[in-house]
Specification:
The complex is a heterodimer of chains A (301) and B (324). Chain A is an alpha/beta fold and 301 residues long. Chain A has helices at residues 43-50, 71-74, 93-103, 109-118, 132-145, 162-178, 190-194, 214-220, 231-237, 272-285, 292-300, and strands at residues 5-14, 17-27, 32-37, 58-63, 66-67, 78-81, 150-154, 182-187, 199-204, 207-213, 221-227, 239-246, 249-255, 266-269. In chain A, strand 7, helix 6 and strand 8 form a beta-alpha-beta unit. Chain B is mainly alpha-helical and 324 residues long. Chain B folds into 2 domains: 13-208 and 289-323, no CATH class; 210-287, no CATH class. The chains are: A alpha/beta (301), B mainly alpha (324). The interface between A and B is medium-sized, with 33 and 24 residues.
């Protein structure tokens, strides 16, 4: 099976600091994966490694079965939108489109113009004079008009207002329907990704914490509320991500495959955002009993 | 990609062409003025202040002729190429994050760099090649009279072309390592000034002198045609003085009693006086114009191109080290 994105013990070091360490991930083709992490967790580093803008310090990273270190073979199949405004500012939108056409053999001119018209972008305008949101839109159009098989979006919603965000999301979802497309989209805001992603990858500084589908996340994570004295037995049989104790009561967010049989525990479903926040917070509490490799296997299934 | 380079560099290219045409015009006019002056009077009068000038006067009533200016300005052109084209080539992309966009189209970063270097390097080659054709022709006209052809060594023939290519690639290499526009430009300027000075001073020594250390007679003749040499087109690479008995004088200033801060013109007079008085014999070794001008051009060019290849290799090594 060829994965859309497959990393093995991937690491990137800047000087003495590891921006990404021991990262093993398998993202199946056709999914829309949200890459969630706090600022500085290594999201951008992972995406830059994937598109060949950086060279890994250790490990391997393959996109669509091709090593990212072979950009000539890989780049025609990839769409990438960077977090920074990276279009040429002294080019007009029209110039930018010509550049896309000249540099990409798979360029879809009609698709590009349809998207530009739909987003009501002024073709004669210099990119540097556009608002941040408009620049983000042009960048996304450029990536989509390549007709990529996999799309990497680094914080695409950072500069855009809610209306544009909704429009961009819509375009993204439509594209994913009309052609086989894998999307990896990063954000530090869970609500940005909640509605569009079917897989989540949670990155805490330099480490992958969790990578699985949203369905699995919902099924496997529960909130348990019960007496404090039986917390220890719960912690033995289930994996506690986050726990808080108030008086005699304990509230625990656990990850488990086993049913919780003890009737003293009240079981609640938890929202995606709560799960993600628990994982992000667990980095600080050192409640890190789970190996990323374990989750990776679940994604494969 | 060619479209992209054209779109990015059309202003620079236009400016380059304007400069090329303007400089060529001045050189042609200067050569024409020199030829006209030679038909009217003997070339020795070129040096007398009241005669017609033998070339275009940039500042009237001075010795600031075009050849003087050209000798100062033209060696700076490769620096302009290095500092304004070479050094910002990559840092400008990094500064504005456009490398994230440019290098994630369907062309790999190394190929992107290669196409850019071939195009910009090619334009530099053609531009400086054309300019060098003009200066080389102009140089031949100058050589007909007493001006030393060695004064224009670095601005004619193949040397200026190779210098410009080296300048470009030094700029690109420094930009690849430093990745910031202004620091790269500053460091490129300093490095290229050093290289340019090195070439101007060092080129006569790239080949051994074409003549042995020999007695130097010209200086005892009355009119001073070029400062040195029994043929004014030869270049003196080493100069010593010997007493009549053949003993080499180590310090000419002490021997003749000349103060160290004596002006150049007065110094020549004093040396001449001293030489006549004490029967001192000057000894010199030459690079003869006929034998060594073009071989030295070729050797210098080869050295510069060798450096260019080295610098280019370092550029790719650094880019691949970070990325691929």
């Amino acid at each position: 099976m060829i994965y859309a994105l497959e990393t093995n013990q991937l690491g990137k070091r800047y000087g003495k600091r590891w921006a990404l360490h021991n990262c093993t991930l398998h993202i199946p083709q056709g999914c829309i994966a949200g890459l969630i992490g706090l600022n500085g967790a290594g999201k951008t580093t992972l995406l830059h490694l994937a598109v060949g803008l950086l060279k890994p310090t250790e490990g391997t990273i393959d996109v669509l079965g091709t090593s990212s270190r072979n950009p000539a073979a890989l780049l025609p199949h990839i769409g990438f939108v960077s977090q920074e405004r990276s279009l040429y500012r002294h080019f007009t939108i029209g110039d930018t489109l010509i550049m896309g056409k000249k540099l990409n053999p798979s360029w879809d001119e009609t698709h590009a113009h349809r998207l530009i018209e739909r987003l009501k972008l002024p073709c004669q305008q210099l990119v540097g004079r556009l608002s941040g949101g408009q620049q983000a839109q042009v960048a996304l159009v450029m990536a989509l008009a390549k007709r990529p098989e996999i799309l990497f979006l680094d914080e695409p919603f950072a500069h855009v207002d809610p209306l544009v965000k909704r429009e961009l999301t819509k375009i993204l979802m439509e594209t994913a329907v009309e052609q086989p497309l894998t999307v990896v989209v990063s954000s530090h805001i869970v609500s940005d990704l909640e509605n569009i992603c079917d897989h989540f990858i949670i990155l805490t500084p330099s480490q992958v914490k969790l990578a699985e589908s949203t369905e699995q996340m919902g099924e496997l994570h529960k909130r348990l509320i019960g007496p404090r004295e039986s917390f220890e037995s719960i912690a033995r049989s289930h994996t506690v991500i986050q726990a808080s104790h108030t008086g005699r009561q304990s509230i625990a967010l656990v990850r488990t495959r086993l049913p919780v049989t003890d009737p003293v525990w009240q079981i609640e479903d938890v929202s995606l955002e709560e799960i993600v926040l628990a994982y992000l917070a667990s980095h600080e509490n050192a409640h890190t009993p789970l190996q990323p490799v374990q989750f990776m296997k679940e994604v494969i299934r | 990609m060619i479209w992209l380079i054209w779109r990015q560099y059309r202003v620079a290219m236009g400016m380059g062409m304007v400069v090329l045409v303007a400089l060529s015009l001045v050189f042609v006019m200067d050569a024409h003025a020199l030829n006209a002056a030679l038909q009217q009077h003997h070339f020795t009068q070129c040096f007398s202040p009241d005669a017609l000038p033998c070339g275009i006067m940039i500042v009237p009533n001075t010795t600031w002729q075009w050849r003087t200016i050209a000798g100062m300005v033209l060696p700076l052109l490769p620096l302009v190429v290095g500092v304004f084209l070479g050094a910002p080539l990559l840092p400008r992309e990094y500064d504005q994050h456009t490398h994230l966009f440019a290098w994630t189209q369907s062309m790999s970063p190394t190929r992107w760099l290669s196409v850019k270097l071939v195009m910009i390097g090619g334009a530099t080659l053609i531009g400086f090649g054309l300019l060098s054709c003009v200066t080389t022709w102009w140089g031949f006209v100058q050589d007909n009279i007493a001006f030393s052809p060695w004064d224009t060594f670095t601005i004619r023939g193949s040397v200026p072309v190779a210098t410009a290519l080296l300048g470009l690639m030094v700029g690109v290499m420094i930009g690849t390592f430093i990745r910031r526009t202004l620091p790269s430009m500053a460091l490129t300027l300093v490095l290229l000034l050093v290289i340019q000075a090195g070439i101007s001073i060092g080129y006569p020594y790239l080949l051994p002198p074409s003549s042995q250390l020999d007695y130097y007679h010209q200086i005892q003749q009355q009119h001073l045609v070029g400062k040195f040499g029994d043929n004014s087109q030869d270049l003196i690479v080493s100069q010593q003085y010997a007493e009549p008995d053949g003993k080499i004088i180590d310090d000419m200033n002490a021997y003749c009693g000349i103060a160290p801060n004596t002006g150049a013109g007065e110094y020549d007079q004093k040396v001449k006086q001293c030489v006549n008085e004490h029967q001192v014999k000057p000894l010199v070794a030459y690079q003869r114009f006929d034998e060594r001008f073009w071989p030295l051009q070729l050797v210098t060019t080869a050295l510069l191109l060798g450096l260019t290849v080295l610098v280019t290799a370092m550029t790719y090594w650094q880019l691949r080290r970070r990325m691929l």
